[in-house]
Specification:
The chain is of the alpha/beta class and 306 residues long. It is 42% helix and 14% strand. The chain has an eight-stranded parallel β-barrel, surrounded by eight helices. Bound molecules: 3-hydroxy-3-methylglutaryl-coenzyme A and magnesium ion (MG).
Protein backbone atom coordinates (compact mmCIF):
# COMPACT_ATOMS: atom_id res chain seq x y z
CA UNK A 1 0.00 0.00 0.00
CA UNK A 2 1.58 3.28 -1.02
CA UNK A 3 0.58 6.38 0.90
CA UNK A 4 1.37 10.00 0.03
CA UNK A 5 4.78 11.03 1.40
CA UNK A 6 3.60 14.54 2.20
CA UNK A 7 0.32 16.12 3.20
CA UNK A 8 -0.84 19.72 2.83
CA UNK A 9 -3.08 20.98 5.61
CA UNK A 10 -5.43 23.93 5.67
CA UNK A 11 -6.20 25.01 9.20
CA UNK A 12 -9.82 26.13 9.18
CA UNK A 13 -9.84 26.95 12.90
CA UNK A 14 -10.16 30.72 12.57
CA UNK A 15 -13.24 30.19 10.34
CA UNK A 16 -14.96 26.81 10.85
CA UNK A 17 -13.53 26.67 14.36
CA UNK A 18 -14.76 30.01 15.59
CA UNK A 19 -17.88 30.72 13.49
CA UNK A 20 -20.11 28.90 15.95
CA UNK A 21 -18.75 30.43 19.17
CA UNK A 22 -21.51 32.06 21.18
CA UNK A 23 -19.38 34.75 22.79
CA UNK A 24 -17.83 37.20 20.40
CA UNK A 25 -14.15 36.48 19.85
CA UNK A 26 -12.36 39.79 19.21
CA UNK A 27 -10.65 40.24 15.84
CA UNK A 28 -7.32 40.69 17.65
CA UNK A 29 -7.60 37.16 19.07
CA UNK A 30 -8.45 35.70 15.66
CA UNK A 31 -5.49 37.52 14.14
CA UNK A 32 -3.16 36.27 16.87
CA UNK A 33 -4.42 32.74 16.23
CA UNK A 34 -3.62 33.08 12.52
CA UNK A 35 -0.13 34.38 13.40
CA UNK A 36 0.48 31.45 15.71
CA UNK A 37 -0.69 28.98 13.08
CA UNK A 38 1.61 30.38 10.44
CA UNK A 39 4.47 30.43 12.96
CA UNK A 40 3.80 26.74 13.49
CA UNK A 41 4.32 26.13 9.78
CA UNK A 42 0.76 26.07 8.43
CA UNK A 43 0.98 27.03 4.75
CA UNK A 44 -2.75 27.51 4.26
CA UNK A 45 -5.20 29.09 6.64
CA UNK A 46 -8.95 29.63 6.22
CA UNK A 47 -9.14 32.99 7.91
CA UNK A 48 -12.80 34.09 7.89
CA UNK A 49 -16.05 34.21 5.88
CA UNK A 50 -17.70 36.96 3.91
CA UNK A 51 -21.21 35.82 4.76
CA UNK A 52 -24.20 37.68 6.12
CA UNK A 53 -23.44 38.91 9.65
CA UNK A 54 -27.13 38.34 10.45
CA UNK A 55 -26.63 34.65 9.75
CA UNK A 56 -23.18 34.27 11.30
CA UNK A 57 -22.42 37.25 13.57
CA UNK A 58 -19.06 35.82 14.64
CA UNK A 59 -17.62 36.39 11.15
CA UNK A 60 -18.84 40.00 10.99
CA UNK A 61 -15.30 41.28 11.55
CA UNK A 62 -14.02 39.68 8.33
CA UNK A 63 -12.47 42.87 6.92
CA UNK A 64 -10.73 43.66 10.19
CA UNK A 65 -9.30 40.16 10.38
CA UNK A 66 -8.08 40.15 6.78
CA UNK A 67 -6.43 43.55 7.09
CA UNK A 68 -4.93 42.77 10.50
CA UNK A 69 -3.08 39.62 9.47
CA UNK A 70 0.67 40.12 9.13
CA UNK A 71 1.18 38.00 6.08
CA UNK A 72 3.96 35.53 5.88
CA UNK A 73 5.50 34.81 2.47
CA UNK A 74 4.38 31.50 1.06
CA UNK A 75 1.27 31.25 3.24
CA UNK A 76 -2.06 31.21 1.45
CA UNK A 77 -5.19 32.65 3.08
CA UNK A 78 -8.70 31.60 2.07
CA UNK A 79 -12.18 32.90 2.90
CA UNK A 80 -15.76 31.73 2.35
CA UNK A 81 -17.78 33.68 -0.22
CA UNK A 82 -21.31 32.34 -0.80
CA UNK A 83 -22.33 35.01 -3.31
CA UNK A 84 -21.16 38.09 -5.25
CA UNK A 85 -21.68 40.28 -2.21
CA UNK A 86 -19.22 38.13 -0.31
CA UNK A 87 -16.62 38.21 -3.07
CA UNK A 88 -17.07 41.96 -3.48
CA UNK A 89 -16.53 42.36 0.27
CA UNK A 90 -13.26 40.44 0.10
CA UNK A 91 -12.12 42.36 -2.98
CA UNK A 92 -13.07 45.74 -1.52
CA UNK A 93 -9.99 45.44 0.67
CA UNK A 94 -6.61 46.64 -0.55
CA UNK A 95 -5.18 44.09 -2.93
CA UNK A 96 -2.49 43.16 -0.40
CA UNK A 97 -5.28 41.84 1.82
CA UNK A 98 -7.20 39.85 -0.78
CA UNK A 99 -7.54 36.14 -0.13
CA UNK A 100 -5.48 33.80 -2.29
CA UNK A 101 -8.45 31.51 -2.56
CA UNK A 102 -12.20 31.86 -2.06
CA UNK A 103 -14.56 29.06 -1.17
CA UNK A 104 -18.06 28.65 -2.55
CA UNK A 105 -19.98 26.21 -0.40
CA UNK A 106 -22.68 23.95 -1.73
CA UNK A 107 -24.28 20.84 -0.35
CA UNK A 108 -24.95 17.32 -1.54
CA UNK A 109 -28.35 17.43 0.20
CA UNK A 110 -31.15 19.80 -0.75
CA UNK A 111 -32.31 20.30 2.83
CA UNK A 112 -28.89 21.41 4.02
CA UNK A 113 -28.48 23.74 1.07
CA UNK A 114 -31.72 25.45 2.08
CA UNK A 115 -30.82 25.68 5.77
CA UNK A 116 -27.24 26.81 5.27
CA UNK A 117 -27.41 29.17 2.32
CA UNK A 118 -31.14 29.64 1.86
CA UNK A 119 -31.42 28.26 -1.67
CA UNK A 120 -31.62 24.99 -3.60
CA UNK A 121 -28.54 23.24 -5.00
CA UNK A 122 -29.43 24.43 -8.52
CA UNK A 123 -29.90 28.02 -7.31
CA UNK A 124 -26.61 27.87 -5.42
CA UNK A 125 -24.81 27.07 -8.66
CA UNK A 126 -26.42 30.09 -10.32
CA UNK A 127 -25.11 32.24 -7.47
CA UNK A 128 -21.67 30.65 -7.46
CA UNK A 129 -21.01 30.75 -11.21
CA UNK A 130 -20.38 34.53 -11.42
CA UNK A 131 -18.38 34.40 -8.15
CA UNK A 132 -16.10 31.74 -9.61
CA UNK A 133 -15.74 33.61 -12.90
CA UNK A 134 -14.93 36.96 -11.28
CA UNK A 135 -12.49 35.45 -8.78
CA UNK A 136 -10.59 33.54 -11.45
CA UNK A 137 -10.44 36.66 -13.64
CA UNK A 138 -8.91 38.51 -10.69
CA UNK A 139 -6.32 35.79 -10.14
CA UNK A 140 -7.96 34.37 -7.02
CA UNK A 141 -8.19 30.58 -6.81
CA UNK A 142 -11.54 28.90 -6.16
CA UNK A 143 -12.36 25.93 -3.99
CA UNK A 144 -15.82 24.38 -3.66
CA UNK A 145 -16.95 22.88 -0.38
CA UNK A 146 -19.30 19.91 -0.73
CA UNK A 147 -21.18 19.86 2.57
CA UNK A 148 -23.08 16.79 3.71
CA UNK A 149 -21.19 14.64 1.20
CA UNK A 150 -21.22 11.87 3.81
CA UNK A 151 -24.46 12.43 5.68
CA UNK A 152 -27.00 15.16 6.35
CA UNK A 153 -28.53 16.31 9.64
CA UNK A 154 -31.91 16.68 7.91
CA UNK A 155 -31.95 13.96 5.21
CA UNK A 156 -29.76 11.32 6.88
CA UNK A 157 -27.96 9.05 4.43
CA UNK A 158 -26.54 10.81 1.36
CA UNK A 159 -25.89 8.42 -1.55
CA UNK A 160 -22.58 8.67 -3.42
CA UNK A 161 -24.52 9.61 -6.59
CA UNK A 162 -25.41 12.93 -4.92
CA UNK A 163 -21.72 13.60 -4.40
CA UNK A 164 -21.00 12.72 -8.02
CA UNK A 165 -23.77 15.09 -9.12
CA UNK A 166 -22.57 17.98 -6.96
CA UNK A 167 -18.93 17.48 -7.98
CA UNK A 168 -20.04 17.62 -11.62
CA UNK A 169 -21.88 20.91 -11.03
CA UNK A 170 -18.86 22.36 -9.23
CA UNK A 171 -16.62 21.36 -12.14
CA UNK A 172 -19.02 22.87 -14.70
CA UNK A 173 -18.89 26.30 -13.07
CA UNK A 174 -15.09 26.30 -12.95
CA UNK A 175 -14.29 25.38 -9.35
CA UNK A 176 -10.64 24.24 -9.25
CA UNK A 177 -10.69 21.85 -6.31
CA UNK A 178 -13.26 20.49 -3.88
CA UNK A 179 -13.62 19.74 -0.20
CA UNK A 180 -15.28 16.45 0.57
CA UNK A 181 -17.00 17.53 3.75
CA UNK A 182 -18.39 15.35 6.49
CA UNK A 183 -20.28 18.25 8.05
CA UNK A 184 -21.72 16.24 10.94
CA UNK A 185 -18.90 13.74 11.37
CA UNK A 186 -20.97 10.62 10.76
CA UNK A 187 -18.93 8.97 8.03
CA UNK A 188 -16.98 5.76 8.33
CA UNK A 189 -13.96 4.81 6.20
CA UNK A 190 -15.57 2.77 3.41
CA UNK A 191 -18.19 5.45 2.90
CA UNK A 192 -15.38 7.98 2.49
CA UNK A 193 -13.72 5.80 -0.14
CA UNK A 194 -16.99 5.57 -2.07
CA UNK A 195 -17.47 9.34 -1.93
CA UNK A 196 -13.93 9.89 -3.24
CA UNK A 197 -14.63 7.45 -6.07
CA UNK A 198 -17.80 9.41 -6.83
CA UNK A 199 -15.81 12.66 -7.03
CA UNK A 200 -12.98 11.31 -9.19
CA UNK A 201 -14.84 11.47 -12.53
CA UNK A 202 -14.78 15.28 -12.11
CA UNK A 203 -11.71 16.14 -10.01
CA UNK A 204 -8.32 14.48 -9.81
CA UNK A 205 -7.02 13.03 -6.56
CA UNK A 206 -4.79 16.15 -6.22
CA UNK A 207 -7.91 18.34 -6.33
CA UNK A 208 -9.82 16.62 -3.53
CA UNK A 209 -9.45 17.82 0.08
CA UNK A 210 -10.73 15.87 3.05
CA UNK A 211 -12.78 17.97 5.50
CA UNK A 212 -13.81 15.68 8.31
CA UNK A 213 -15.66 16.77 11.41
CA UNK A 214 -14.99 14.48 14.35
CA UNK A 215 -18.40 14.29 16.01
CA UNK A 216 -18.43 10.47 16.09
CA UNK A 217 -14.68 10.09 16.58
CA UNK A 218 -14.18 8.79 13.03
CA UNK A 219 -12.14 11.59 11.49
CA UNK A 220 -8.67 10.02 11.79
CA UNK A 221 -9.92 6.68 10.49
CA UNK A 222 -11.61 8.52 7.64
CA UNK A 223 -8.39 10.40 6.91
CA UNK A 224 -6.48 7.13 6.75
CA UNK A 225 -9.04 5.77 4.28
CA UNK A 226 -8.62 8.88 2.13
CA UNK A 227 -4.81 8.64 2.37
CA UNK A 228 -5.07 5.09 1.07
CA UNK A 229 -6.89 6.46 -1.96
CA UNK A 230 -4.06 8.99 -2.49
CA UNK A 231 -5.76 12.14 -1.11
CA UNK A 232 -3.03 14.41 0.30
CA UNK A 233 -4.95 17.62 1.06
CA UNK A 234 -6.88 17.93 4.31
CA UNK A 235 -8.58 20.51 6.46
CA UNK A 236 -8.50 20.47 10.20
CA UNK A 237 -9.03 22.83 13.07
CA UNK A 238 -6.50 23.70 15.74
CA UNK A 239 -7.66 22.39 19.15
CA UNK A 240 -10.52 20.65 17.30
CA UNK A 241 -12.58 23.83 17.48
CA UNK A 242 -15.81 24.32 15.72
CA UNK A 243 -18.98 23.19 14.07
CA UNK A 244 -21.43 24.60 11.59
CA UNK A 245 -24.24 26.77 13.00
CA UNK A 246 -26.66 25.05 10.60
CA UNK A 247 -25.67 21.50 11.61
CA UNK A 248 -26.98 21.24 15.15
CA UNK A 249 -25.04 18.94 17.45
CA UNK A 250 -22.09 18.62 15.07
CA UNK A 251 -18.75 19.23 16.74
CA UNK A 252 -15.49 20.53 15.38
CA UNK A 253 -13.19 19.40 12.64
CA UNK A 254 -10.54 16.85 13.41
CA UNK A 255 -7.92 18.60 15.54
CA UNK A 256 -4.89 19.68 13.54
CA UNK A 257 -2.64 18.46 16.38
CA UNK A 258 -4.16 14.94 16.21
CA UNK A 259 -3.80 14.81 12.45
CA UNK A 260 -0.19 16.03 12.53
CA UNK A 261 0.65 13.53 15.28
CA UNK A 262 -0.76 10.69 13.18
CA UNK A 263 0.87 11.82 9.93
CA UNK A 264 4.30 12.37 11.45
CA UNK A 265 4.03 9.01 13.19
CA UNK A 266 3.46 7.46 9.76
CA UNK A 267 6.52 9.23 8.33
CA UNK A 268 4.39 11.62 6.27
CA UNK A 269 5.72 15.20 6.23
CA UNK A 270 3.54 18.25 6.82
CA UNK A 271 6.06 21.05 7.40
CA UNK A 272 4.38 21.71 10.74
CA UNK A 273 6.12 22.10 14.10
CA UNK A 274 3.85 20.13 16.44
CA UNK A 275 5.15 21.88 19.56
CA UNK A 276 4.31 25.31 18.21
CA UNK A 277 0.97 24.03 16.99
CA UNK A 278 0.15 22.81 20.48
CA UNK A 279 0.96 26.29 21.79
CA UNK A 280 -1.45 27.78 19.24
CA UNK A 281 -4.15 25.33 20.39
CA UNK A 282 -3.46 26.19 24.00
CA UNK A 283 -3.66 29.90 23.25
CA UNK A 284 -7.15 29.71 21.75
CA UNK A 285 -8.40 27.17 24.33
CA UNK A 286 -7.21 29.46 27.14
CA UNK A 287 -9.01 32.37 25.53
CA UNK A 288 -12.22 30.36 25.21
CA UNK A 289 -11.82 29.15 28.78
CA UNK A 290 -12.10 25.44 28.08
CA UNK A 291 -9.78 22.51 27.55
CA UNK A 292 -8.57 21.67 24.06
CA UNK A 293 -10.52 19.08 22.05
CA UNK A 294 -7.25 17.66 20.74
CA UNK A 295 -6.27 14.37 22.38
CA UNK A 296 -2.66 14.58 21.15
CA UNK A 297 -2.52 18.26 22.09
CA UNK A 298 -3.68 17.52 25.62
CA UNK A 299 -1.37 14.52 26.08
CA UNK A 300 1.72 16.29 24.77
CA UNK A 301 0.98 19.48 26.69
CA UNK A 302 0.58 17.50 29.92
CA UNK A 303 3.77 15.56 29.23
CA UNK A 304 5.65 18.75 28.50
CA UNK A 305 4.52 20.45 31.71
CA UNK A 306 5.25 17.38 33.88
P1 LIG B 1 -30.12 35.39 2.02
O1 LIG B 1 -30.85 35.99 3.17
O2 LIG B 1 -30.83 34.38 1.18
O3 LIG B 1 -29.47 36.50 1.07
O4 LIG B 1 -28.79 34.73 2.57
P2 LIG B 1 -30.04 37.77 0.39
O5 LIG B 1 -29.25 37.93 -0.87
O6 LIG B 1 -31.55 37.74 0.30
O7 LIG B 1 -29.61 38.93 1.41
C1 LIG B 1 -30.22 39.10 2.68
C2 LIG B 1 -29.41 40.08 3.50
O8 LIG B 1 -28.09 39.58 3.72
C3 LIG B 1 -29.20 41.43 2.81
O9 LIG B 1 -29.09 42.40 3.84
C4 LIG B 1 -27.86 41.27 2.15
O10 LIG B 1 -27.22 42.49 1.91
C5 LIG B 1 -27.11 40.46 3.19
P3 LIG B 1 -30.34 43.33 4.27
O11 LIG B 1 -30.75 44.02 2.98
O12 LIG B 1 -31.40 42.40 4.82
O13 LIG B 1 -29.73 44.24 5.31
N1 LIG B 1 -26.04 39.65 2.59
C6 LIG B 1 -24.75 39.69 2.94
N2 LIG B 1 -24.10 40.43 3.87
C7 LIG B 1 -22.77 40.26 3.96
N3 LIG B 1 -22.06 39.37 3.20
C8 LIG B 1 -22.70 38.63 2.29
C9 LIG B 1 -24.10 38.78 2.14
N4 LIG B 1 -25.00 38.18 1.33
C10 LIG B 1 -26.18 38.72 1.62
N5 LIG B 1 -22.01 37.76 1.55
C11 LIG B 1 -26.55 33.91 2.44
C12 LIG B 1 -27.88 34.03 1.73
C13 LIG B 1 -25.72 32.87 1.72
C14 LIG B 1 -25.85 35.25 2.42
C15 LIG B 1 -26.82 33.50 3.89
O14 LIG B 1 -27.57 32.34 3.87
C16 LIG B 1 -25.56 33.29 4.67
O15 LIG B 1 -24.77 34.20 4.90
N6 LIG B 1 -25.36 32.09 5.13
C17 LIG B 1 -24.17 31.79 5.94
C18 LIG B 1 -23.94 30.37 5.94
C19 LIG B 1 -22.66 30.08 6.67
O16 LIG B 1 -21.76 30.90 6.81
N7 LIG B 1 -22.61 28.83 7.15
C20 LIG B 1 -21.44 28.37 7.82
C21 LIG B 1 -20.30 28.15 6.87
S1 LIG B 1 -20.47 26.73 5.84
C22 LIG B 1 -19.81 25.44 6.78
O17 LIG B 1 -19.47 25.62 7.92
C23 LIG B 1 -19.61 24.14 6.10
C24 LIG B 1 -18.14 23.88 5.71
O18 LIG B 1 -17.29 23.95 6.84
C25 LIG B 1 -18.02 22.50 5.10
C26 LIG B 1 -18.71 21.44 5.95
O19 LIG B 1 -18.25 21.15 7.05
O20 LIG B 1 -19.77 21.02 5.51
C27 LIG B 1 -17.64 24.89 4.67
MG1 LIG C 1 -16.97 22.36 8.24
Amino acid sequence: MSLPSKVALIDVGPRDGLQNEKGLVPAAVKIELVHRLQDAGLQEIEATSFVSPKWVPQMGDNAEVMTGIRRRAGVRYSVLTPNMKGLEGAMALDRAHWPHEVVVFGAASEAFSQKNINCSIAESMERFAPVVERALQAGIAVRGAMSCALGCPYEGEVPAERVNYLAGLMKQIGVQRVDLADTIGVATPLKVKRAIEATLPHFSIDQICGHFHDTYGQALANTLAALEMGVWNYQSSVAGLGGCPYAKGATGNVATEDLVYMLHGMGITTGIDLDKLIDAGQFISDFLGRPTNSRAGKALFTKRSA
